Amino acid sequence: MRVVGVMLSGLALWASVAAAQERPLSPRGQATTQIGSNWIDIYYGRPILRARQGIFGEGNEYGQQVYAGAPIWRIGSDVTTQITTEVDLVFGDDTLPAGEYSMFADLTANEWTLVFSTLGPKQTFREETPNTVWGAYGYTDDLDVLRTSMTVSEHPVSADQLIVTFTDVTETGGNLTIWWDNQIATTPFEVAE
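Given the sequence above, the corresponding structure tokens read:
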């Protein structure tokens, strides 16, 4: 009986180690809101700081660590961040037509530029599909649909895992907000009339 107990304990340990190895380093996340009868969804990878300090950096190096060699940030990790909107959205004076887009951010310490593009997401790094990117590697601005500024502020509390969310949502719009480490970037949007 003791041998059976040891064998079962060993199998349980092996199963828990195997399950931990299959867990992604950056779990997938989703931000969703509904305005009227229309849905807006954002799908993104949620990287974890893992005790790294100052992930965004300072001065001329601001953003370079999160770019990880790409020309722009994918706003997350792994598969390119995607937004799907059932309604036209207005950012500043520009309209983002209803549809599906990749989302990126061009980072400076004082202002981020939120980018919506028709570049599609690759599901694997090795995929060879035209007009698609893995993360932001291979990004070019020729398929950009809209660029809008985001205000950036430093928060006294650090978010360990990237958060993309909608804030201050009303019947006519709200804010798209990105929070990671001690940086919070926000841009307002309205539903087109």
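DSSP finds two helices and eleven strands in the chain. Try to locate this feature in the token string yourself.
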